[in-house]
Amino acid sequence: MDFFQSQETLTSIEWILRAIVAFFLLIIVTKILGQRAISQLRPLDFAIALVIGNIIAHPLSDEDLGLKGSIITTSVLVVMYFWGVFIILKWPWFRRLVTPPPITIVKDGEIIYKSLKKARISIDVLLEELREEKIEDVKKVALAIWEADGKFSIFLDPKYEPLTPSLMQMETQPFDFPKTIIKEGKFNSKALKQIQKSEAWVISSLENLYKTEVKNVLLATLDSHDNLKVFLYK
Fold first, then answer.
1. Which helix (H) or strand (E) holds 82?
2. Is the pTM here over 0.85, yes or no?
3. Most exposed among 29, 111, 126, 171, judged by the fewest C-beta atoms under 10 Å?
4. 103 in helix, strand or coil?
5. pLDDT tens digits along 194-209
6. CA–CA gap between residue 48 and residue 180 (Å, rounded)
7. Which ranges form a coiled coil (predicted)?
């Protein structure tokens, strides 16, 4: 049973095996390429992700196509991707060729129309990005840059920046990230061990503070100051 080769007909088992092999191949390739290829999606990343997905999809939907060619092609593309990344890091001229430079869209509260046309984005897109950053007035923006990965970098005018403890010269406590000790009615033993708490202590705290049991808890967190936060099933 050689499901890697082109065949006129495929049995159900061969279709299943072909899908399994293609699935794990995609997982491995994505792992090799790293998060950069599936998150930021710069031109080189987008191209490689799109082409590899297309190559893998064809043999899954067409029984006349073998997986052998897709595997070879995908392997070559992975090598080419790393070669392209190496050249981008090595030679700036190639980086400029495949990675567009950032475009300044707003400067000192003024919209640069030529930049909007160059970036091929509309006023609506710009306003949407500002709303997502909780900015209601373009005049408050000192600088807005359209990055190569299709995202905005927005900087407020200093006079519109919110006050922070450092500006007020206030003393603050170190950042304390709470541990999840119960999730969906089950203890997180690893987290309990890290904060040196026992299940008995948690059960007692739940009974005393919330009059409930572990099975009724959707989520429970505990910080280094023993502040217990509990969210019950409703």
1. helix 67-90
2. no
3. 171
4. strand
5. 999 999 999 999 999 9
6. 38
7. none
- In angstroms, the CA 107 to CA 138 distance is 10
In 10 A of CB 75, how many CB atoms? 12
Q: What pLDDT, in 10s, does the model give residues 36-83?
A: 445 555 666 666 776 777 777 777 666 666 666 677 777 777 787 788
Count how many residues are written for the chain: 234
Q: How far is CA 44 from the centre of its chain?
A: 18
The Cα–Cα gap between 230 and 217 comes to: 7
Domains and their CATH numbers in the chain: 12-95 (no CATH), 103-160 (3.30.240.20), 179-232 (3.30.240.20)
For 173-191, b/e burial (b = at least 16 CB within 10 A) is eeeeebbebbeeeebeeeb
Q: Could you tell me if 20 and 81 are in contact, meaning their C-beta atoms sit under 8 angstroms apart?
A: no
Q: What DSSP assignment string belongs to 11-31? A: -HHHHHHHHHHHHHHHHHHHH
> What is the distance between the terminal CA atoms of the chain, rounded to a whole angstrom?
53
Contact 37, 30 (CB under 8 A): yes
**Whole-angstrom Cα distance, residue 1 to residue 66?**
12
104's enclosing H/E stretch is: strand 103-107
Q: 46: buried, middle or exposed (CB in 10 Å: 19+, 13-18, 0-12)?
A: middle
Region 177-199: what's the mean pLDDT? 93
Using CA atoms, how far apart are residues 135 and 105, in angstroms rounded to an integer? 15
- The residue behind tokens 């502040």 is 227
Tokens 């919330």 correspond to 210
Rounded to 5 degrees, what are φ and ψ at 182? -140, 135
